[in-house]
Amino acid sequence: MAIPEGKRREFILYVDEFQSLATQSFVTLLSEARKFGLSLVLANQFLAQVKDPRIVQAIFGNVATLVCFRLGQADAELMEKEFAPAFGRFDLRNLPNWHACVRTLAAGQVVRPFTLQTLPEATPWDDALAQAVRSGSQRRYGRPRRVAEKEIARSFRCRDDEEGEEQEEA
After folding, report:
1. What is the pLDDT of residues 92-110, one digit of tens each?
2. Based on the structure, what is the number of domains in the chain?
3. Does 44 reside within a domain?
């Protein structure tokens, strides 16, 4: 069930509090995701939450965009080298509310780090709308667990078959 690269849909995976899920698998995922059209948005409060330094190294080695809101001392010291010479640890520790420092790429080229200002959410919370969005998402993307588990198992069987064929050819 391999999908040719040109026919794959791009996919964005948002992982909040990702340190709770960060395992060695993330190291492989970070280095391999791009070729499968998978973009990752990883968010957490501070870097010390990620216990494995190899995962932190993999993140910094593969990330295209870093967005930092006001940082604590330890993170500001670590992130200073990512934002230098435009911003130092003092800048990163003293950002006003709703401001962030950004380091990114544009057309594959490094862009000088810059700041941006976000806006607080102005729309009042609407429980009915939130439930409607969740229900719509479940109807559109959800499927029974047993069906999803079969798809995952079939996917792994296909991948294992392809790897076996590659080993036989070698």
Report:
1. 999 999 999 999 999 989 8
2. 1
3. no
Interior/surface letters 21-56, b for 16+ CB within 10 angstroms, e for the rest: ebeeebbebbeebeeeeeebebeeeebeebeeeebb
Q: What angle do CA 108, 110, 116 make, to 5 degrees?
A: 115
Domain that holds residue 132: 123-170
Q: List the structure tokens of 8.
A: 């794959």
Cβ count near 5 (within 10 Å): 9
Residue 130 inside a domain? The answer is yes
Cis ω on the peptide bond leading into residue 85 (within 30° of 0)?
A: yes
Question: Does the residue 149 lie in any domain?
Answer: yes
Can you spell out the DSSP letters for 93-121? HSPPTTEEEEE-EETTEEPPPEEEE----
Q: What is the pLDDT of residues 12-50, one digit of tens each?
A: 989 999 888 888 888 888 888 887 788 899 999 999 899
Q: Is 87 in a helix, a strand, or coil?
A: coil
How far out from the chain centre does Cα 14 lie? 6
User: Is 128 among the domain residues?
Assistant: yes
Token digits of residue 60: 């910094």
Distance CA 67, CA 86 (A): 14
Separation of alpha carbons 41 and 39, rounded Å: 7
